Amino acid sequence: MECMFAGRPVLACNSGGPTESVQDGRTGFLRPPTPEAFSAAMATLLDDPALAAKMGRKAHKHARRTFSLETFTSFLEEVMYEMLQ
Asked: Which of 2, 14, 19, 28 is a Cys-bridge partner for 10, taking CB atoms 3.0 to 4.6 Å apart?
């Protein structure tokens, strides 16, 4: 999350929590937990700074839209209203 808010693409394992927050190929890369997979993804970003910057911008927008305090507050309010009904 911190990387996305900082406008950086994320490189994460393709299991668990990251699969819910990282959009593979758009906001970062989800890869198998192997040195080869991670190094290939890192090389892609290092070889193409424009791609890394584009993915970083998309990551920041995605993080703000999906995980901001305002989004969580709105979701919590909806849940509370549903509980009261």
From this structure: 28
